[in-house]
Amino acid sequence: MIDHSLVRPELSEDQVRAGCLLAADYGVATVTVRPSDIDQAVRYLRGSATRPASVAGFPHGDSNTATKLYEARDLIRRGASEIDMVINIGKLISRQFPYVETELVQMANACRSEGVLLKVIFENAYLTEDLKIIACKIAKRAEVDFVKTSTGFAPSGCTLEDVRLMYGKCNPRVKVKAAAGVRSLETALAAYQAGADRFGCTATAVILEAWKAQLAKKAESAESIPPAPAGPTP
What pLDDT, on the 0 to 100 scale, is given for residue 231? Predict the structure, then answer.
């Protein structure tokens, strides 16, 4: 359920490599890298269960549709199995809904034709509730695979209220990815309970080590329970 995020601009190539190897070691869903790192990610993840993913129109969503399509197709050609694209925030806020929907339909078709998942980032920090609802309706009509709360580059990230809203408006046709703010096992579990099927995070090791410790504690508690006494012999 985790997309290990490696999209910060200051990451070195060594840090990208270390992040890919960490994600592969934990067996998370994907590593999401910057477009210029996709070739390395494909190479580092070869033979593992973790898939390479990347971003289009990131982080502000204001590239034109042709640019987003070229970026997505190039990433897919290079081996990306999932694309996280940013919706055109300015067009959505300007209520240019046909523009937004046409772009999502074209992106969804381009990804689907290659067997690649498309996740659409709303960047909820900038949207009113009615625009979030409209974006969900557009995403469903475009048949994207996921809607996503945030990029991590806006003033705020995901909230449980947004996850619940997006789940309520998109389920079961479109899944929800919570991102920017999922930094602990507690926040991941809370987002899951609110409806998220995927988490974008950098604190992968912290979350999964906490999960391992919790499972070990449960197993230890189960082993400490004495067996029930045998019943009478017939």
Answer: 59
